[in-house]
Amino acid sequence: MLASIFIYGYNINIQNTNVVLCKIYLYVAFLFASVTPTILILASIDRLLISSQNVDTHLYSSKRLAYFSISISTAFWMIYHVHLLIKANIVEIYPSVFVCYYGLSATYVNYIFYSVMVMDVSFSILMIILSILSFKNVRQIRILPRQQRGQVRTMKKKDFQLLRCLFVQGIIFTFFCIFIAADFTYQAAERDRIQTSRNEAISTFIYNLFTTLYNIPFCANFYVFVSFSKAFRQDVKQLVRKMFGKDTIAPREEEPNNRENINYKAPGANSVAISN
Question: Mind telling me which residue stretches traverse the membrane in this protein (predicted)?
């Protein structure tokens, strides 16, 4: 995101002046573009596990498993994108005009374009499916008879708020990644055709526009949580008050209610012990 600000906002293209910077720029860009939606998918899987009616399924929702999954996913994408450190180079597209690009091989460039399209579409479909399944689990919990609610683990309001935030993030990512995926597919299809200067100017403008739109999901997380999570807003207010020396006690979380939370009742809680 920061690199896009300098490139498309201030027309600073230092990656076009050095081969090492070019390789690092493309590698880091593709790495973060893969790791960020992967973490969203893992978070959606965690919400799916915690909203399940099966008590044993909740055991898989843990910090240790989350750290392990994120580490494995990050390592996988770091290895997967190593080819960019090898193939990326500065190429001359016009006389005395050099740009940082994937290389001169048409096969490799097509592979990059189509792989980006497949990854974006796959990420979007997975996030939407996981969010829908999580909301389905929540709905099933709410319609359970009172006699069976004691077998379901409690879900706090923060869990529901995080579930809504993840669903909104999935929608935002899906909406904006469609543009860049379509543009990459179009570039791969039109690569071998002769382009006029007018068509090239239009293609460049569309690519820059869609690239800017593609970066929106990566900077929209804060606004999503502020808009859809009351607990997050309270934490932000508390942090701001601490920064300005006005530390206050954070408000207690509201008690679970029947609409958004399922209370766990221990067996025999209402029984009366009789002793001599």
Answer: 24-45, 65-86, 111-133, 162-185, 205-228
Query: Pick from 166, 154, 160: which is nearest to 130 by CA?
Result: 166
| pLDDT single digits (tens) 1-10 | 555 665 656 5
- The reported pTM is 0.71
Q: Maximum distance among all alpha carbons in the chain? A: 101
Q: Measuring CA to CA, which residue among 62, 260, 37 is closest to residue 130? A: 37
CA 146, 152, 155, 159 torsion-angle sign = negative
> Which one-letter amino acid corresponds to residue 275?
S
Residue linked to tokens 């592979």: 111
What CATH code is assigned to 2-219? Answer: 1.20.1070.10
CA distance 212 to 206: 10
**Three-class DSSP category at 118:** helix
The model's pLDDT over 134-149, given as tens digits with 9 standing for 90+, comes to 878 777 766 655 555 5
Say which residue the tokens 């995926």 belong to. Answer: 181
- Structural contact between residues 21 and 7, judged by C-beta atoms closer than 8 angstroms: no
The CA distance from 202 to 206, in Å, is: 6
DSSP state of 55: G
Helical pair 63-80 and 19-50, crossing angle rounded to 10 deg: 150
Q: Tokens standing for 95?
A: 């006389």
Q: Which token pair is 227?
A: 């808009």
Q: Which amino acid is at 271?
A: S
Helix (H) or strand (E) holding 100: strand 97-101
Segments of the chain scoring below 70 in pLDDT: 1-12, 55, 141-155, 191-192, 246-276
- DSSP code, position 16: G
